[in-house]
C-alpha cells in the first residue's frame, strides 16, 4: 500500500514537472518573438520621436510595440504558471530557447547578422540548459503562502534581497547616466538583479494561486498581496530598462546576456530562498554547474561574434556614425563599448 502511494506521489510530481516544462517552452517562444516585434516598434517610434534609449517614451504610441508587449505578456503569463508547477532551476534555464528564436528572427527580420560562431554559441546555451534540466531537483512541497513567506524572511535571503536592492540603486543612479549608452551590462544588470527578486515573488504568487484553485484559499493572507506588489514593481522596472537595452544595442547580444545574468541570479536566489540544492548530492550540483559553464561559453562566443561583425575596424565605426548622422537613429551595429578613437573623433 505504501509503495503504491509513493508511486502515485512520484507520478503526480512528474505530471507537475511536465506541465511546468510545457509552459516554460511556450513562454520561450512568445518571449523570443516579442523581442523582435518590440524592436521593430521601437525603431519605428524612434524614427519620428525621441528614442527610448535616450529617455523617450514615444514607443507608447506605437501599435507595433504594443503587439510585442502583448506577446511578451502572454509569454510571461506562461512563465508565471510554470513556476507554480516546477522549481526555478528547472524552469529558468529553458529561457535559452528564446535566445535562439530571438537571434534567428533578428537575423531574418532585422538584418542583424548572426555569425557562424554565434550559432554555435546558441547551441552551447541549449546544451548547457538541457544539462541543468536533466539534473534539476524535485519541486519542494509547499502547503501555504505563509510557508513561502517564512522562507523569504530568513536571514540568508533577506541579506541577498538587501544587496540586490542596493546594487540596483547604485547602477541606476551612478552607472547608467555615465555608461548606459556604451555598456549593455548597465541596463541588463538592473533587469537581471530585479528579475531574480521578481521570480521569487512570482513563484510565491503562483503557488498561492495554485493552492487557491485547489480549494485552499490563500487570498485571505496579506503575504499573498505583498508578493503581488513586489511582482508588479519588479516587472515594471524590468520592462523599462529592457526597453532601453534593446533599443540601444543589438538584439542578438541583449538576449543572451540577459538570459545568462537573469538565469544565474535567479537560480542563486532560488537556492538561497527555497534551498533547491539541499536534497542533491555533489555530483548533481557539479553537473548543473557544468551546465552553467557551457551556457557562459555560448554567451562568450556570441560576444565575440558581435565584435567581429561590428567593431573589427575603424572604417566600420565611421560608417556607423555616418548612418547615425543621416537618420538620427543609432544603428543596429552599435558596439558594446565605445572605442576611444571614436570618442576623440
UniProtKB/TrEMBL annotation:
GO terms for cellular component: early endosome; plasma membrane. It is a multi-pass membrane protein. InterPro entries: EmrE-like, Mg_trans_NIPA. It is found in: Cell membrane; Early endosome; Membrane. Belongs to the NIPA (TC 2.A.7) family. Coiled coil: none annotated. GO terms for molecular function: magnesium ion transmembrane transporter activity. The chain crosses the membrane at residues 20-37, 58-78, 84-105, 117-137, 157-177, 184-208, 220-241, 253-273, 285-302. Its main location: membrane. Keywords: Cell membrane, Endosome, Ion transport, Magnesium, Membrane, Transmembrane, Transmembrane helix, Transport. The keyword Cell membrane applies. Acts as a Mg(2+) transporter. Can also transport other divalent cations such as Fe(2+), Sr(2+), Ba(2+), Mn(2+) and Co(2+) but to a much less extent than Mg(2+). This is Probable magnesium transporter. Homodimer. The keyword Magnesium applies.
Amino acid at each position: 500500500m505504501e509503495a503504491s502511494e509513493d508511486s502515485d506521489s512520484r507520478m503526480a510530481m512528474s505530471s507537475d514537472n511536465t506541465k511546468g516544462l510545457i509552459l516554460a517552452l511556450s513562454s520561450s517562444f512568445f518571449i523570443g518573438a516579442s523581442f523582435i516585434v518590440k524592436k521593430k516598434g521601437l525603431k519605428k517610434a524612434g524614427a519620428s520621436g525621441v528614442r527610448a534609449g535616450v529617455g523617450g517614451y514615444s514607443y507608447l504610441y506605437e501599435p507595433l510595440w504594443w503587439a510585442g508587449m502583448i506577446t511578451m505578456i502572454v509569454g510571461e503569463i506562461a512563465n508565471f504558471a510554470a513556476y507554480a508547477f516546477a522549481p526555478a532551476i528547472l524552469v529558468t534555464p529553458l529561457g535559452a530557447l528564446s535566445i535562439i528564436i530571438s537571434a534567428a528572427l533578428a537575423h531574418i527580420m532585422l538584418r542583424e547578422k548572426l555569425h557562424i560562431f554565434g550559432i554555435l554559441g546558441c547551441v552551447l546555451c541549449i546544451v548547457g540548459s538541457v544539462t541543468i534540466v536533466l539534473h534539476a531537483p524535485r519541486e519542494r512541497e509547499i502547503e501555504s503562502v505563509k510557508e513561502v513567506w517564512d522562507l523569504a524572511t530568513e536571514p540568508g535571503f533577506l541579506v541577498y534581497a538587501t544587496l540586490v536592492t542596493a546594487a540596483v540603486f547604485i547602477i541606476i543612479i551612478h552607472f547608467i547616466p555615465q555608461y548606459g549608452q556604451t555598456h549593455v551590462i548597465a541596463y541588463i544588470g538592473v533587469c537581471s538583479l530585479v528579475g531574480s527578486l521578481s521570480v521569487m515573488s512570482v513563484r510565491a504568487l503562483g503557488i498561492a494561486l495554485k493552492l487557491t484553485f485547489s480549494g485552499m484559499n490563500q487570498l485571505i493572507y496579506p503575504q499573498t498581496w505583498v508578493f503581488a506588489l513586489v511582482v508588479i514593481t519588479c516587472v515594471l522596472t524590468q520592462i523599462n530598462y529592457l526597453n532601453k537595452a534593446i533599443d540601444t544595442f543589438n538584439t542578438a547580444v541583449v538576449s543572451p546576456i540577459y538570459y545568462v545574468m537573469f538565469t544565474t541570479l535567479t537560480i542563486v536566489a532560488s537556492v538561497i530562498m527555497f534551498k533547491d540544492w539541499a536534497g542533491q548530492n555533489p555530483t548533481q550540483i557539479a553537473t548543473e554547474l557544468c551546465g552553467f559553464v557551457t551556457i557562459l561559453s555560448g554567451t562568450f562566443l556570441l560576444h565575440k561574434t558581435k565584435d567581429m561583425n561590428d567593431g573589427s575596424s575603424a572604417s566600420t565605426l565611421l560608417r556607423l556614425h555616418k548612418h547615425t548622422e543621416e537618420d538620427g537613429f543609432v544603428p543596429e551595429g552599435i558596439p558594446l563599448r565605445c572605442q576611444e578613437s571614436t570618442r576623440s573623433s
